[in-house]
Amino acid sequence: MQKSYKTEINPTQEQIRKINKTIGTCRFIYNFYIAHNKELYNKGEKFMTAKSFSVWLNNEFLLNSPEYLWIKDVSSKSVKKSMENAYTAFTRFFKKQSRFPRFKKKNKSDVKMYFVKNNPKDCFCERHRINIPTLGWVRLKEKGYIPTTKQGYVIKSGIVSCKAGRYYVSVLIEIPDQNEPQLNNFGLGIDLGLKDFAIISNGITKKNINKTAKIRKLEKQLKREQRCLSRKYEDLKKRNNKIKNKMKGEATRQNIRKQVLKVQKLHHKIDNIRTDHINKCVNEIVKTKPSYITIEDLNVKGMMKNKHLSKAVASQKFYEFRTKLEAKCKELGIELRIVDRWYPSSKLCHECGCIKRDLKLSDREYICECGYHADRDYNASLNLRDATSYKIA
Ligand SMILES: [Zn+2]
What we know:
Radius of gyration: 38 Å
Largest sheet: 6 strands, antiparallel
Oligomer: single chain
Strand order of the largest sheet: 2-5-6-1-4-3
Bound molecules: zinc ion
Shape: elongated
């Protein structure tokens, strides 16, 4: 995105002389271009574009009329720009968008000195001064109005103009694209669980992929193939004990290799579905652009020690979810809040704040004495969302 800034400058006498000379030359060239094209037209010759006029001026006119060489004394970029401006005036006329271009009159015209960034030192802007090609450092009247180069802003081009004895600079600045999208004015709490994968405080529940028919079918298939594989191993062991069955043993080994591959492929397939699910969940959650997301600090290691939980936890990829969520949040500027795992998100009543100490894992509904009742995990997600004590990931 480009933005333009205009501010008054405080040029030295020498700089004023140069600016006036440049503007005067540009006006001369502008008028010359119009006059020359008028002449061409009267002679029935072809109209000259800014580019062909420039070539003619340098390669023909100035060679034959050295008395005009002062044209070369000023910024060539600025001179070129005035030809382009005059050309634009003609094209507008040709398109019937405006009348025939008029000559610019001295002191009454809007001719300006154009400059452009050609090398890294050009257009360098500090709080109190700006480096303009052919003029050098020019003092700025209002300090710090134009974003400085040190702040990372790049000036691509600009113009110096004069009005009523005052001088101004107007610059075009490349404003870096804001990658961070606007975030919404709400937060999300996410309760991760074994029954459902995630219960989100906005009312959305993400299913536990392992409870879907697809994964169940594949798991069954995997078990079958694994049993088949171990039978084949048993078979081979027995054969190895009998020397005369050596040849058959080789065939069995071949079979085993095939079976191992079958099992591996199934493992892969299931794993891919699970990872895919995690990615989808993360993307769908951050897509709502909350300003923050709160999750519980999962004690994955502790859960893994629990025989009954370990398989369920591993297969849900909680850790992978957390890592991916963290990365996405960082990318989008969403604050990821981690609540201590001792925070009683499930036991707290979201309505009145009292703690229900006797809440059992089997209690799916949270019912409070205050009259509040809600799905247990949804209640937890609300408490996470509104948690005030947390660390930022
Ligand atoms: Zn309550």
